[in-house]
């Protein structure tokens, strides 16, 4: 039975994958935006480079066409069709010149090696022009220059060569940019982790604060965005503290106001019994009902003092023998029951009043629901980790296994026992166990019969 839900914070951290991560989303947003902008900038650079190199290549084609017209068949382009052009940075770009001299009727009079046999532009209309034409299933960029006699010099360049240069340029730009993107990702991950660290520190501070502590959460030098959340949380804790204090005062006042008239009513019932000098079944039942109401109010008052427990527990070494000796054994003697003790541990670090209340409720339950003439045993032993196990066992009819999980619930009672009760005794024990950080569980009682209530207290 888990009585410490606030201690599940670490377990909840293991299931964080089920929720989205602000750190991951920030990193994805930064990297996604950076990659998108890098692709846009790369496209712009490549576009600018394409237009710039196209102008240089077009100028080279125009110069080649002019030289072909001037030199004719003795053009040095026929002997050496490869030229070197400067790209403006002192570096040379290799340009292969493919030229044709075309007659007015479209016949090719002269051409360079590897140049198509058919004219690039069969019919020349203007004195000089540029054109993109398909020849032999290949796209060419051609410059046409017409001589006065009608012949034309046509110098072309495959578009594939231009694209190859553009691809080399893009590759040269891509690898350094990719390296910078990787560096940007690492730097962004580190910085985002550092900037979000106050959130993790705040979560740890909130998790470390006990449910009984409603004091404001203090974080040194928080960022402005986190300060807004802290202000709202601290305001909520303040309002919750005021509400709980009001509820506790109301419960205490109500319990006190109810106890007084019940005690007076019980006294009147006793006076009536004395005046009648006869046992009256109705008056005895009324007195039993009054005792039951008084016990219920006492239990509610005890729970009101424990839940919430605003102040931290003041623990000390409690002598178990003396604590057990102070318990009321009259109900057990009335049912002819033996209360045994098996104490391997003499002291327990706890709050004396709370442990006394827990033992009193456990003994009362064991005597009430145990077998008449049976036995109740109080045990204490050392746990391997240094803690202490405190247990109260009886040899009564016990509790079915499927109902044991509900024994710590308020006002839950096992039906068919025939015993009066309010269902709050084990709730008080469960609350006291939770305040001490102890584990409460239910198991078999004595000799495989009855019920055993076990409290495992941690070391300390």
Describe this structure in words.
The chain is of the alpha+beta class and 460 residues long. It has three domains: 33-173, Beta-Lactamase (2-Layer Sandwich); 224-301, Signal transduction histidine kinase, dimerisation/phosphotransfer (DHp) domain (Helix Hairpins, Orthogonal Bundle), CATH 1.10.287.130; 314-457, Heat Shock Protein 90 (2-Layer Sandwich), CATH 3.30.565. The protein is built from twelve helices and 14 strands. The protein has helices at residues 9-13, 22-71, 76-79, 159-195, 197-208, 224-276, 281-306, 320-325, 330-334, 352-369, 401-404, 425-435, and strands at residues 82-86, 92-96, 98-102, 108-111, 128-135, 138-146, 152-158, 316-319, 338-343, 347-350, 375-382, 388-394, 439-444, 451-457. The strands form four sheets. The protein has a five-stranded antiparallel sheet with strand order 4-3-7-6-5. A five-stranded mixed sheet has the order 9-11-12-14-13. A two-stranded antiparallel ribbon has the order 1-2. Helix 2 runs antiparallel to helix 4 (159-195). The longest helix has 53 residues, at 224-276. The model is unreliable at 1-7 and 75-93 (pLDDT under 50).
């Amino acid at each position: 039975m888990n009585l410490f839900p606030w201690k599940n914070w670490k377990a909840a951290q293991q299931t964080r994958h089920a929720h989205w991560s602000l750190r991951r989303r920030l990193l994805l947003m930064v990297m996604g935006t950076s990659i998108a902008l890098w692709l846009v900038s790369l496209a712009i650079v490549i576009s600018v480079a394409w237009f710039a190199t196209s102008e240089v290549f077009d100028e080279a084609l125009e110069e080649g066409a002019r030289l072909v017209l001037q030199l004719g068949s003795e053009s040095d382009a026929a002997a050496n069709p490869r030229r070197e052009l400067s790209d403006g940075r002192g570096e040379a770009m290799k340009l292969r010149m493919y030229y044709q001299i075309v007659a007015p009727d479209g016949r090719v009079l002269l051409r360079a090696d590897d140049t198509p046999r058919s004219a690039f532009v069969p019919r020349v209309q203007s004195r000089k022009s540029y054109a993109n034409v398909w020849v032999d299933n290949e796209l060419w960029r051609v410059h046409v220059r017409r001589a006065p006699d009608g012949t034309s010099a046509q110098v072309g360049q495959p578009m594939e060569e231009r694209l190859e240069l553009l691809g080399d340029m893009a590759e040269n730009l891509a690898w350094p940019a990719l390296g910078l993107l990787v560096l940007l990702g690492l730097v962004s991950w580190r910085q985002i982790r550092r900037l979000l660290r106050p959130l993790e520190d705040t979560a740890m501070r909130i998790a470390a604060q006990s449910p009984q502590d409603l004091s404001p959460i203090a974080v040194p030098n928080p960022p402005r965005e986190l300060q807004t959340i802290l202000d709202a949380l601290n305001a909520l804790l303040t309002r919750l503290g005021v509400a709980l204090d009001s509820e506790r005062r109301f419960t205490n006042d109500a319990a006190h106001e109810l106890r007084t008239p019940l005690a007076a009513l019980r006294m009147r019932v006793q006076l009536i019994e004395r005046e009648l000098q006869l046992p009256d079944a109705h008056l005895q039942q009324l007195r039993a009902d009054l005792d039951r109401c008084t016990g219920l109010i006492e239990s509610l008052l005890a729970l009101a003092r424990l839940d919430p427990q605003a102040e931290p527990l003041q623990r000390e070494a409690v002598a178990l023998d003396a604590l057990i000796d102070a318990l009321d054994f009259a109900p057990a003697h009335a049912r002819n029951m033996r209360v045994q003790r098996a104490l391997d541990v003499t002291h327990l670090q706890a709050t004396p009043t709370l442990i006394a209340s827990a033992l009193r409720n456990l003994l009362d339950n064991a005597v009430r629901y145990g077998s008449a003439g049976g036995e109740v045993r109080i045990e204490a032993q050392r746990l391997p980790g240094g803690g202490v196990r405190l247990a109260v066992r009886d040899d009564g009819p016990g509790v079915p296994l499927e109902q044991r999980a509900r024994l710590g619930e308020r006002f839950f009672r096992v039906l068919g026992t025939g015993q009066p009760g309010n269902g709050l005794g084990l709730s008080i024990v469960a609350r006291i166990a939770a305040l001490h950080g102890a584990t409460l569980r239910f198991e078999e009682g004595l000799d495989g019969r009855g019920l055993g209530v076990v409290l495992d207290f941690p070391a300390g």
